[in-house]
Amino acid sequence: MTTPIYDFARRYADSDAVRAHMPGHKGEPQLGCEPLDLTEITGADELFAPEGIIAESEANAGEIFGCRTLYSTEGSSLCIRAMLYLAMKSAQERGKPPVIAAARNVHKTFLTAAALLGFEIVWLPQDPAKSYLSGGFVLSEECLGQHPSALYLTSPDYLGGIADIRAAADFCHRHDMLLLVDNAHGAYLKFLPESLHPADLGADLCCDSAHKTLPVLTGGAYLHIADSAPEICRSSAKNAMALFASTSPSYLIMESLDLCNAYCSGHFPGELIETAARGKRLKETLSAQGWTLTGDEPMKLTLLPKPFGYTGTALAEILQKQHIFVEFADPDYLVLMLSPQNAASDFDRIAAALAQVKRRGEIPERPPQMPRPDCVISPREAVFSVTERLPVSQCIGRICAEFAVSCPPAVPIVMCGERITEPAADCMRYYGIGYCTVIK
Question: Among 16, 186, 293, 351, which is most buried by a count of CB atoms within 10 Å?
C-alpha cells in the first residue's frame, strides 16, 4: 500500500529546499523529527480540502476499514464533535428533533459537544452497581419517548467491556435512528480474525483513536462513515471536522497515520493474533494465581485487585517500582493496555511482577452506587453560566457547571447541568475529586 504523505515529507526533508515557510524550526532538529514536520506547502495537500497526497492516504485507510475514513490529528475528541454535528445535520434534514440518547459512561468531549451544539440528551438507564466507567446500559423502547435521532455509545469502555453493537445497530435502524460509536479504544478490533469493529457491526458513524492501540503518534485518529450513513453525513464530513479543528494540523501525525496504513494492510493482523494469544496466556496465568479479572478486550488487561488485598492505585505503585507503568488505576481497578509493539518479554515482566505480590486479606470496601442526579438545566446553559469552584462538601444541592474529572479516564460522575446530591458527592470523594465547579 502506498504511503504518499510520508514519502512526500521524506523527499522534501532530503532535498536542499530553502524553508521560507512555517514552522519556525526550519527543519533543524531539536527533537530529531523536525525535518519531517511540514505545513501546507505546494504539493503537501490540505487536510480539510484534500485533493492530492492526503486524499490518497485517506482513501487507503478507507479501503482498509471498508468505509469512508477521514484523518484527525487532534484525537477522537475532534471526531466526536464532528460525529455529533453530522448527527444533528441529519436529524434536521429528516425533520427530527436534535436529541441524542447516550449511555452515561461518555468521555467528557461528548458534553463539550452538547454545550457547543445545543442538542438534548436522553441518558439510558444504567445498572447502579456497575462502575461509572462501565457501559452497563439498558437499551429499550423507553428511551424513545423523547424521539432521539441518534444513539451514542462508548465501546470498548475504559475497563475493556465491549457492547453488543450489532444489536444496538438493529435497534437504531428499526427506529430511524443513527448509531454513533466512540470506539477510541478499539481501532485494532478491525484486524482480529473476526472483526469486532463498529463499522463492520452496523454503526453509521464511529471514531477510533488510532494512537491508543495502533503504532500512531499521539493525536492520530479516524472518523469512519459507513455506507449506511445518510448522504449528508458523507458530503458534510470535511466541513464538520474543519468546524472544530485547528487550521494547523500536524504533518508528523498524518505521516504516522499514513505509514500505519501499510502496516495494517501487511504484518499487523498476524502480529495481533500472536499478541492476543500471549495476552490470553497471561490472563490465564494471573487467574490461576488468584487474581480477579474483568473485561472482554483481548488487548486490555483489567484487574480487580481488592479481593487480592490491594487497591488499584496501590498495586499501580508496586508495579511502577519495577518500571511497569499502567494505563489507569483507581481504588477498584487496574488497567493495562497492550499491543503487538509490546515485546514478548513485557508480558513476562508483568506476570513475574504480579507473581511477587503477596496476597493479603480481601479489602471489603466497595464503591458507592452511582447516583442518577436530576438534570436541572442543559449542558450548554451550565457551561455558559457564572460559576464558582468549591470543595465538594459545599456543592451538595448545587448545579454542576463543569467536568470534575481527570484524564484518564475523562468520564464525568455528574454531568454539567445536573444537581449534585449527597450520594453524588460521596462518589466524587471516593474517586479523589476534592473540588467541583458549580453555578454561582
Answer: 186
pLDDT for the residue numbered 128: 72
Select from 264, 294, 329 the last residue of a domain.
264
Angstrom distance (rounded) from CA 398 to CA 419? 6
Same domain, 273 and 260: no
Q: Phi and psi dihedrals of 347, rounded to 5?
A: -65, -40
Domain identity same for 68 and 8: yes
**121-132 pLDDT, tens digit each:** 999 988 777 788
The domain in which residue 393 lies consists of 379-439
Write out the H or E segment, with its range, that includes residue 411: none
Total number of domains constituting the chain: 3
pLDDT of residue 398: 96
Q: How far apart are CA 373 and CA 39, in angstroms?
A: 47
Q: Flag whether 371 is in a domain.
A: no
Cα–Cα distance, 52 to 41 (Å, whole number): 12
Q: What share of the chain in percent tops pLDDT 90? A: 90
Rounded to an integer, the average pLDDT of 403-412 is 77
Phi, psi angles (nearest 5°) of residue 208: -125, 135
Name every residue whose Cβ is closer than 8 Å to that of residue 77 and which is 6 or more positions away in sequence. Answer: 107, 109
Residue 421: give its domain's CATH number: 3.90.105.10
Cβ pair 85, 98 in contact under 8 A? no
Please identify which residue in the block is written with the cell numbers 469493529. 197
Report which of 334, 286, 326 is spatially closest to residue 133, judged by C-alpha positions.
334
Residues 218-259 have pLDDT tens digits of: 999 999 999 989 999 999 999 999 999 999 999 999 999 999
| Whether residues 204 and 99 fall in one domain | yes
Model pTM score: 0.95
